[in-house]
Write a structure and sequence with these properties.
Elements (H helix, E strand, L loop, with lengths): L16 H21 L9 H4 L1 E9 L10 H17 L6 E5 L3 E7 L4 H9 L4 E11 L38 H13 L8 H5 L3 H4 L17 H14 L5 H6 L9 E7 L2 E7 L4 E2 L3 E8 L6 E7 L1 H14 L9 E5 L2 E4 L11 E5 L4 H13 L5 E10 L1 H30 L2 H26 L6 H30 L4 H33 L4 H30 L3 H4 L9 H4 L18 H5 L1
Antiparallel strand pairs: 1-3, 1-13, 2-3, 4-6, 4-7, 4-10, 5-6, 8-9, 9-12, 10-11
Helix pairs in contact: 1-13, 1-16, 5-8, 12-13, 12-14, 13-14, 13-16, 14-15, 14-16, 15-16
Length: 597
């Protein structure tokens, strides 16, 4: 008779359940320690819970640029918008792409919503254009109407030698004379540019004696013929800048062509005919709003890069020799004139300043946008949501109450139906909650994850998913006991069947969460992310905690003997008699017929 094999070790976690428990215990300690080391002991709350403003921007396709909306441009836009918002002193703003063509900007409470929307929604396409003509923003300027002077209109002047002594703008002419001036300016051939160094060395009065120079437009860059000039002068005369639709129609002007533009001068609208762009905003190295120490007023200082400094010196040198308004250049931001300072001499050195009509906010906003550059795409606001801190607190309390009620109902069900096994389920839920909380807190510090109201809903749904995994395993153990097996073999035989069911169920839940995260935009992704995270943690908890703890409890007398309060009482479960075979020693009994034979 063969001797029984020795040294065979049970498979799975039956032999070493302590190892699996040690792994998950170490993970919990490490995550908790990391949470305290990072000083992020609570999950980061989203706008709908903490209060603040959430802005959804959608990228717009531009004519002639069908491929402009791509991952590179979207990421560049995110970086610029984030720097703009953080430049306002909001270090916890969240800017991220959603889908292919959306950007979500979440700005916490304490920031001016209007200021934030201006920063994130402005494309900041900046150009310095020479002024050809100016008039009031009405469709037709009456003859003899005075045109506001740059110094009194809220527009500023770059700080150049002699600029404060420049004359005021003369009265504007009638619409006919305006059109004649436009036509002549557009058709005039380019004259030799004044030397920047020579212009810089003269006073304003001396510079006016130099030969006249046209704006830095070449004949090839301007519309040719009387027809184009007449068309532009007709549009200029008919333009009403107080009409929002007419202002919108001016958007999208090409930098290499003359254009019409509108802008505010104090409380009134003005309209301009502008030449091709002489300097681009991307050549501005830095800009900021500061207080002028001499006047005490707010100004915007600009520093150009090498290319921009050279172009700016050339443009200002050419404009300085002209008469008003053609000695002015317009600072055009997103096709709107924000300032039209006059020039009295070439500005060298790559430094300039814009003054006049600024307060702290407008000066800092303009400097901020110029400093951080233009967005590579145009955006429109899809939605703007503002939540007060009080409303966010109420929603958070409501979410926590809903989660507590759901958890309480699950615990009551487990206690009534599973009795002692409910202890395993409750402790497993507690482990899952610790892992979820610590990971969410660390993700808020690491990747900017914010717990919003849909994410709280995902966590509540996850309670049911996790409890369902425990129930599947418990029922498989009960099925084995009903077949007449004792607890220890029942725990091990039930595990492979329960494991397959749990993995399939969690895979379906995770797949649904992943698809939902990919195809949705905005706060729904918070629900999908939390659902996917808790589904993965459910697998970890069941494999590394629930199964090993059941293996250890099966060795205790309370559960192994089938105590009525253990939830595994064979009589209560209707178990069959034990599956046993009687062992027979000696020779088999001889049949009667065989003896007689």
């Amino acid at each position: 008779m063969a001797a029984p094999k020795k040294g065979r070790r049970p498979t799975g976690a039956q032999g070493r359940p302590g190892r699996a428990l040690a792994i998950i215990l170490i993970a919990m300690v490490a995550l908790t320690a990391g949470m305290f080391v990072s000083k992020q002991t609570t999950p980061r709350l989203g706008i709908d819970l903490a209060g603040g403003t959430s802005i959804t921007l959608k990228a717009k396709s531009e004519p002639g640029k069908p491929d402009a909306i791509n991952e590179t441009n979207m990421n560049t836009a995110v970086g610029i918008i984030e720097r703009r918002v953080n430049g306002l002193g909001v270090s916890e703003a969240e800017v991220q792409t959603q889908g292919r063509d959306h950007i979500i900007v979440n700005i916490p409470k304490g920031m001016n919503e209007k200021q934030a929307r201006a920063q994130v929604g402005t494309t900041a396409q900046l150009y310095f254009r020479p002024v050809i003509a100016f008039a009031d923003g009405a469709p037709a300027a009456p003859q003899g109407t005075q045109s506001p002077s740059p110094s009194a209109s809220g527009s500023g002047a770059p700080k150049a030698e002699g600029d404060k002594s420049s004359p005021q703008a003369p009265p504007s002419s009638s619409a006919t004379s305006q059109g004649r001036a436009v036509s002549e300016a557009l058709k005039a051939p380019a004259a030799p540019s004044a030397s920047p160094s020579a212009s810089a060395s003269k006073k304003a009065d001396d510079s006016k004696a130099t030969p006249a120079a046209t704006p830095p437009a070449t004949p090839s860059a301007t519309p040719s013929g009387d027809a184009a000039a007449s068309d532009l002068q007709a549009k200029f005369a008919a333009l009403d800048c107080s009409d929002e639709k007419q202002r919108a129609a001016l958007k999208g002007a090409k930098p290499e062509e003359p254009t019409l533009a509108c802008g505010k001068r104090g409380d009134t609208w003005g309209k301009w005919v502008l030449g091709p762009a002489g300097v681009e905003g991307k050549d501005v190295k830095s800009a900021k709003g500061v207080i002028d120490q001499q006047t005490g007023s707010w100004i915007v200082t600009m520093d150009f890069n090498e290319k921009g400094a050279e172009a700016f010196a050339k443009v200002t040198g050419e404009l300085a020799a002209k008469q008003t308004p053609q000695n002015q250049f317009a600072i055009v931001l997103d096709d709107d004139v924000v300032s039209d300072p006059f020039v009295s001499g070439a500005i060298l050195g790559g430094n300039a300043q814009i003054s006049g009509g600024f307060n702290q906010q407008t000066a800092q906003d303009l400097g901020n946008m110029l400093s951080y550059g233009a967005l590579p795409l145009s955006f429109s606001e899809d939605s703007v949501t503002t939540v007060t801190a009080a409303l966010g607190g109420e929603q958070l309390r409501a979410g926590l109450i809903a989660g507590a009620i759901g958890l309480l109902l699950v615990v009551i069900y487990l206690l009534v139906y599973y009795r002692g096994l409910a202890f395993v389920a409750i402790v497993s839920l507690l482990v899952s909650a610790i892992l979820t909380y610590t990971i969410m807190a660390l993700l808020g510090k690491g990747i900017g994850f914010a717990l919003n109201l849909p994410a709280v809903c995902g966590a509540i749904v996850a309670i049911g998913i996790t409890a369902d995994s425990f129930i599947v395993y418990f029922e498989r153990i009960r099925d084995e006991i009903r077949e007449g097996r004792t607890l220890r073999p029942a725990v091990e035989r039930a595990w492979p069947r329960a494991r397959r069911t749990i993995l399939v169920s969690d895979f379906v839940s995770f797949l649904a969460a992943a698809v939902l995260f990919i195809v949705t935009v905005g706060k729904v992704q918070g629900f999908a992310f939390t659902l996917g995270l808790t589904t993965l943690l459910d697998v970890v908890v069941v494999f590394l905690f629930t199964k090993p703890i059941m293996t250890l409890l099966a060795r205790t007398n309370f559960f192994a003997s089938g105590h009525p309060w253990s939830g595994l009482d064979p009589k209560r479960l209707g178990a069959k008699p034990p599956l046993r075979r009687s062992r027979r020693t000696g020779s088999a009994p001889v049949p009667v017929d065989a003896k007689e034979a």
